[in-house]
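Handout, section 3.2

Students often ask what a structure token actually looks like in practice. Rather than define it abstractly, here is a full record for DNA-directed RNA polymerase. The first block is the sequence as you would receive it.
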Amino acid sequence: MDQNNPLSEITHKRRVSALGPGGLTRERAGFEVRDVHPTHYGRVCPIETPEGPNIGLINSLAAYARTNQYGFLESPYRVVKEGVVTDDIVFLSAIEEADHVIAQASATMDAKKQLIDELVAVRHLNEFTVKAPEDVTLMDVSPKQVVSVAASLIPFLEHDDANRALMGSNMQRQAVPTLRADKPLVAGVDIYNLTKYTRSNQNTCINQRPLVSKGDVVQRSDIMADGPSTDMGELALGQNMRIAFMAWNGFNFEDSICLSERVVQEDRFTTIHIQELTCVARDTKLGPEEITADIPNVGEAALNKLDEAGIVYVGAEVGAGDILVGKVTPKGETQLTPEEKLLRAIFGEKASDVKDTSLRVPTGTKGTVIDVQVFTRDGVERDSRALSIEKMQLDEIRKDLNEEFRIVEGATFERLRSALNGQVVEGGAGLKKGSVISNEVLDGLEHGQWFKLRMAEDALNEQLEKAQAYIVDRRRLLDDKFEDKKRKLQQGDDLAPGVLKIVKVYLAIRRRIQPGDKMAGRHGNKGVVSVIMPVEDMPHDANGTPVDVVLNPLGVPSRMNVGQILETHLGL
């Protein structure tokens, strides 16, 4: 699945294709099947489709479209009765809506939701016409229902040429999550384990950040955490930049982009990519490969980032050529030179019968090790690193379950406190008959003593028994859950035939924007960074504030995407 950013994931799940079994082929599909059809209205987006041979054959669902039980696409409409728009919503397929007279969402209404124009622009029998308000039977729910999720994110979409809007909706899916997201200016007991620095399918970084603190009061629909490319729950695919449309010493010729050095210094377009590097130990004809720190002909300096099992430490800063996982492979008997005979005589068999096949950092790569996973075949003895990873995971599971129990137990005793406060006790827990329970009395008792209280009211005694049974049952349930997860962790991994062990090392690589990188706006205004200029060399406004980006003004007229100018004005 495409996991470049949240938008690309949603779009991938909402894709509609005319290709595949029982469908068309690219070679035989003509212009007619690729074209926009009147029945696409509110069901298939007329904007978002790939450029190239798949144009018109692969589409996206419109924002509010859904499939019915027969697989037909349906679009929502508000019911109109005698010129009055109701809040009743009906979903209709293209066949069902054909006879209806459908007004647009922008039709003018008064305070009582009565259509007030003498003639209303409508769709009827797949044609655009005008009708009297009393003839209207349905109304669009929103102007956005015509386009897909990606196209609806383009501000001033109606001011952009369709070709450029197509590019804009496609390029938003390619946006790499930045270090700090910046939302656009124009635009029971549950434990939520946040995903921290995890690799996506596109090697980008999935990292969630909590937005609430301990003690905050939250309610339904409140945002509790941000993920990649989100800022306070709002989609934030890029950064808000101060733009100048002007020629600048030829640096923005032919859609080139001139960037300020401040953008690089402030890490506005810095991204983190997570690379997965895999080392596999197999059973060969000459014997098993071994993952070890005892590697022939390698100095101490090259091994200082490895543990005793031969696997790199988490947190180690590594560069090109550094050893991540030490591995030796048996090699066949060859004719020995006198030097090798001497080495064999001094150091024994090990010195000559294995060769170094360690996993190293690829050329041109530099980063930080953020995670290591060790998978061992069932029946093969686990090394010290695998055991320490297993122990760490078990500790994490136990910590989560204990926290869950603490919250459940706390809520139960709070309910009991409110029920028992001011009630008369018959005895138990060292209290005299006829005593009145107060908060001070309850605070002086351990939680286990609460269940020994005998209350004057039978209903309270029953409540105490139920609470005790609930807490015991919950503890047993969580213990069973822990044992089940422990059993799954401790059993061997199901690996391919001949594979004894797999070690996966995850490397976080930080990349700053540089000349040659592609940048794009939401209106199909794409370009390549040509130069990064010092702040003092950038053009500035009347107040002396320098701009962040200089774009070529010739990129607007011929492309007919005036939306970018309007977005720039509104952003100011």
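Discussion prompt for tutorial groups: Residues 389-490 form one domain. How would you have guessed this from the sequence alone?
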